[in-house]
């Protein structure tokens, strides 16, 4: 094959990865379905399709090692598919191992290697397949024929996918008769006729050109992927008039979902959607990030222009402002569109969870079922990446610490299998991601005791905390009430890390628990991270920004008039007393606040805190930029933004501010 | 057995001309329609082997009629009759499911060759 396949590698890695993730998720779902007696044949078909796709794709990429392992996995699924039953637990184990093995091979392929499959794993999958076939045989009067494909072990040449499932790639070339008055319409008809036989993956000229009446040289070439035999393609074309010449030839065989087909479409304008299917392109995430960066710069430049406009003499201002308004509207629209492109369904994240929970539960001798709801909800891709670790941690936590062992559950009057529900829902401009288990729940009393023992807060303060606030103590660094920290959910990252990552993206973590009934973690997340509403405040000569999501409200008070509690003033707010901290002193700016000063009430590390500032400057949309060194080491700062005046302003990390 | 044809055009003169061409080619004219609404009704009653369809017609365009007919009978063979300069409409009709097209003004032998091809190269 002279074709340069290396340029398809990125596409291959991402698509193969998707197939493997789904394969893993479906395996776990299958097991659950098998227990519940639900219909499984569709799921088993799905398994087969995914394995088959990976095999075909890797064979096309000349990654024979991957193809060989995928081929074995497919063989293992096949007998179950033929019988329409779910694979037994042992086969699921082997298949999951194969999925992991394939994932590792794909990762190596991504590095430019041509990895060989692990021989022991190949043999293990093959042995399981043989066993599955053996059990399958007696069930049918006409036993399923042995697989058509070669069974030679090891580095068998990548077997071409079986003919039935194969989509033939057909190259079509037609010349429209010179006498035809509307050659482009003729060519268009040819394309549409071909589309009825399969998928037209390429045409030259492109469909858009045909629509515009362009058919240079009266010639059209097209590539069709179709299950139809060549003769049928020829017959269909023979029904079209005004064609001076028709040539139909078979290109080299490709598996049905041949990824490279997408590439030439990059050139096509998205103006004319193909019949039925939406046309899409794949874009590197970094490229999207750079779009967003550029849009952020545009937003800043626009507000800078607006600010400069105020200095322009009155009579010249309207046309300038009109222009800036239009620019602003366009930039806003562009921003919305870029954001829309970055939106990614949560399923990308949640798909792996049932599998991870199952593996963990098996190791711990527990039983768990994970239900995922609302996985279709879309959030910013950047957020998704940030959430992967926290969510996995919460899940491990739920299985390891939350769920009881089957006997313990039975004694408590629960079913032996624990349930973990991961659900997502939109609430205005936020996404609520919730992970709930029906385990033993958290004990606020033990958390209070642990916090006091660790010296994190005085006993009296611990006593005053409501049960709900006491649960938040679990997020203090290094605080664990688990009888033993297992290697599974210990790992040096605790809930404090989860809370930090959630807050780093402008979200908040809530904990809710009832003893014996389970625990619920709620992550309140923004839809996107890059643009946030901030409250600007002035302290001494500095302007600082507070994320609006963390701000409850503000009040104008004279600090000296406030009651004192343990040496600090407290502000009555929303039925509670909120400790007030001097932001200037906290940041080391010094200087006293003016007599009646503004106090912003915001979420601190352990409940609401008041921050005394000199002046409130108002709310603003800020484009957040990550901090560069050495500022990223300063506790209490989370990002930087630029004001319309061009002045850079730090965005405070309220949770860590108190600790600073 | 002769193939059965339904002729759809809002101009009587055009219908007559097309009828003559088809009759001369050994087809059986089973019906006529003067607009898209009638075309859909007639098609359902008659299920002809072939329908010729004008594009620009009152009440319902030939494109809409084509879309409806093909939806009810994916195997319907519909040949659009269009004037020069209506290329984009013809493409729309093709998207809607038309099998082929002829461009007015047309010559009898051209029309017959198109429909013979579209009916299976007979």
TrEMBL record, chain A:
Chain positions found as Phosphohistidine: 52
Every HPt domain range: 1-109
Organism expressing this protein natively: Anaeromyxobacter diazotrophicus
Region (Disordered): 131-163
GO MF annotation, one: phosphorelay sensor kinase activity
Residue span, Histidine kinase domain: 324-529
Location of the CheW-like domain: 531-660
The reaction(s) this protein catalyses: ATP + protein L-histidine = ADP + protein N-phospho-L-histidine
One Pfam match: HATPase_c
Top EC group: transferase
A Gene Ontology BP annotation from the UniProt entry: chemotaxis
Keywords, ordered alphabetically: ATP-binding, Chemotaxis, Kinase, Nucleotide-binding, Phosphoprotein, Transferase, Two-component regulatory system
Designated name of the protein: Chemotaxis protein CheA
Gene Ontology CC: one annotated term: cytoplasm
EC number: 2.7.13.3
Basic and acidic residues: compositionally biased ranges: 131-142
Database matches in InterPro entries: Bact_Chemotaxis_CheA, CheA-like_dim, CheA-like_homodim_sf, CheA-like_P2_sf, CheA_P2-bd, CheW-like_dom_sf, CheW-lke_dom, CheY-binding_CheA
TrEMBL record, chain B:
UniProt superkingdom: Bacteria
Gene Ontology biological process terms from the UniProt entry: phosphorelay signal transduction system
Modified residues annotated as 4-aspartylphosphate in this record: 54
InterPro entries on file: CheY-like_superfamily, Sig_transdc_resp-reg_receiver, ST_Response_Regulator
Pfam family, one: Response_reg
Keywords, alphabetical: Phosphoprotein
Residue ranges annotated for the Response regulatory domain, each copy included: 4-119
Entry-linked PANTHER family: TWO-COMPONENT RESPONSE REGULATOR, TWO-COMPONENT RESPONSE REGULATOR ARR22
Protein name listed in UniProt: Chemotaxis protein CheY
Organism: Anaeromyxobacter diazotrophicus
């Amino acid at each position: 094959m002279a074709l340069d396949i290396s340029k398809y590698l990125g596409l291959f890695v991402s698509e193969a990865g998707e197939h493997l993730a789904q394969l893993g998720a479906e395996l776990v779902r299958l097991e659950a379905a098998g227990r519940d007696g639900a219909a499984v044949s569709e799921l088993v078909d799905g398994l087969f399709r995914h394995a088959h796709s990976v095999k075909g794709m890797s064979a096309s990429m000349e990654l024979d090692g991957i193809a060989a392992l995928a081929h074995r996995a497919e063989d293992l699924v096949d007998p179950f598919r033929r019988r329409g039953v779910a694979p037994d637990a042992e086969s699921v184990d082997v298949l999951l191992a194969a999925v992991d093995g394939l994932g590792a091979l794909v990762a190596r392929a991504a590095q430019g290697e041509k990895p060989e499959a692990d021989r022991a794993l190949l043999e293990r999958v093959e042995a399981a397949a043989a066993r599955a076939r053996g059990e399958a045989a007696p069930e049918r009067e006409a036993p399923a024929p042995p697989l058509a494909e070669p069974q030679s072990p090891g580095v068998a040449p990548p077997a071409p996918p079986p003919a039935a499932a194969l989509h033939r790639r057909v190259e079509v070339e037609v010349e429209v008769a010179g006498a035809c008055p509307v050659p482009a319409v003729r060519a268009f008809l040819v394309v549409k006729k071909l589309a009825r036989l399969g998928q037209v993956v390429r045409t030259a000229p492109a469909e858009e050109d045909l629509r515009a009446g362009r058919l240079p040289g009266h010639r059209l070439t097209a590539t069709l992927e179709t299950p139809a035999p060549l003769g049928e393609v020829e017959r269909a074309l023979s029904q079209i008039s005004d064609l001076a010449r028709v040539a139909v030839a078979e290109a080299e065989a490709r598996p049905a979902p041949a990824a490279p087909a997408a590439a030439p479409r990059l050139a096509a304008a998205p103006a004319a959607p193909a019949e039925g299917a939406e046309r899409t392109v794949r874009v590197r995430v970094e490229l999207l990030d750079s779009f967003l960066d550029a849009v952020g710069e545009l937003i800043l430049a626009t507000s800078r222009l607006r600010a400069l406009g105020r200095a322009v003499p009155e009579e010249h201002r309207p046309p300038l402002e009109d222009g800036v308004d239009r620019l602003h509207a366009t930039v806003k629209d562009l921003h919305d569109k870029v954001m829309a492109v970055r939106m990614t369904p949560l399923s990308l994240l949640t798909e792996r969870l049932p599998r991870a929970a199952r593996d963990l539960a098996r190791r711990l001798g527990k039983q768990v079922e994970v239900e995922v709801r609302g996985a279709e909800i879309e959030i910013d891709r950047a957020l998704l990446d940030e959430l992967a670790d926290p969510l996995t941690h919460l899940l491990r936590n739920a299985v390891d610490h939350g769920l009881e062992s089957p006997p313990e559950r039975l004694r408590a009057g629960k079913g032996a299998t624990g349930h973990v529900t991961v659900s997502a829902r939109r609430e205005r401009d936020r996404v609520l991601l919730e992970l709930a288990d029906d385990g033993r729940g958290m004990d606020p009393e033990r958390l209070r005791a642990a916090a006091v023992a660790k010296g994190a807060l005085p006993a009296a303060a611990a006593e005053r905390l409501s049960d709900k606030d006491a649960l938040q103590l679990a997020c203090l660094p290094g605080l664990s009430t688990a009888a033993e920290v297992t290697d599974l959910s210990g790992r040096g990252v605790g809930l404090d890390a989860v809370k930090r990552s959630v807050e780093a993206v402008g979200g908040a973590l809530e904990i809710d628990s009832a003893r014996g009934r389970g625990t619920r973690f709620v992550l309140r997340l923004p839809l996107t991270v890059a643009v946030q509403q901030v409250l600007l405040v002035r302290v001494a000569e500095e302007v600082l920004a507070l994320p609006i999501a963390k701000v409850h409200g503000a009040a104008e008070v004279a600090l000296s008039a406030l009651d004192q509690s343990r040496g600090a003033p407290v502000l009555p707010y929303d039925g509670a007393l909120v400790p007030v901290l001097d932001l200037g002193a906290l940041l080391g700016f010094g200087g006293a606040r003016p007599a009646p000063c503004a106090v912003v009430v915001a979420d601190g590390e352990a409940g609401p805190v008041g921050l005394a500032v000199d002046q409130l400057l108002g709310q603003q949309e800020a484009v957040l930029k990550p901090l560069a060194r050495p500022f990223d080491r300063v506790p209490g700062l989370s990002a930087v933004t630029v004001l319309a005046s061009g002045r850079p302003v730090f965005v405070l990390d309220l949770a860590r501010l108190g600790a600073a | 057995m002769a193939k059965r044809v339904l002729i759809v055009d809002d101009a009587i003169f055009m219908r007559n001309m097309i009828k003559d061409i088809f009759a001369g080619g050994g087809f059986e004219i089973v019906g006529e329609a003067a607009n898209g609404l009638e075309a859909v009704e007639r098609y359902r009653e008659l299920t002809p082997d072939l329908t010729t369809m004008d594009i620009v017609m009152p009440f319902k365009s030939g494109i809409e009629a084509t879309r409806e007919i093909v939806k009810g009978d994916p195997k319907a063979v519909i040949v659009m009759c269009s004037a020069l300069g209506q290329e984009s409409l013809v493409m729309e009709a093709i998207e809607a499911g038309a099998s082929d097209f002829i461009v007015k003004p047309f010559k009898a032998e051209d029309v017959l060759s198109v429909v013979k091809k579209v009916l299976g190269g007979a």
